[in-house]
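Recall that a protein's primary structure is simply its ordered list of amino acids. Everything else, from secondary elements to tertiary packing, is in principle encoded there. The following example makes that idea concrete.
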Amino acid sequence: MNRRNFITRSGLAAVGLAAAPSLAASQAVAPAPKKAGRFKLKYAPSLGQFKNLAGPDIAGQLQFIADQGFSAVFDNGIMNRPPADQDLIVRECSRLGLAMGPFVLYAEFSAKSFVKRDAETRAMLLQKMQQGIDTMARTGIKQAL
């Protein structure tokens, strides 16, 4: 083989290899759109986060969250909701297969609650913790922050 034929054939082979993927792509059939599935990780949007899309109804928001593929939800204010709403949230989460994430037990950033030693602050913290324990018992949520 002489050098001139080698260079010509190598150049033609390189052009053919470069064009092959674009030719194959033009003949390929577009795949069917994927059906929305569930997230593998427990990403948890907050209850009320999709209020503009799902409406103000708690059950509707939970249904929307499940329809979007989430497998968990959290509600920082569940402790302050009436027991009927807490029961509704737990019942709907169970029906939709949603896990409940943690809720906020107490968060007051402008007060130095946990460093004070006075009786009034301690009584308030004990009352909040008891309310959190009652909420955990009613809802089955295992974590409070």
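The mean pLDDT is 84. The two ends are 78 Å apart (CA to CA).
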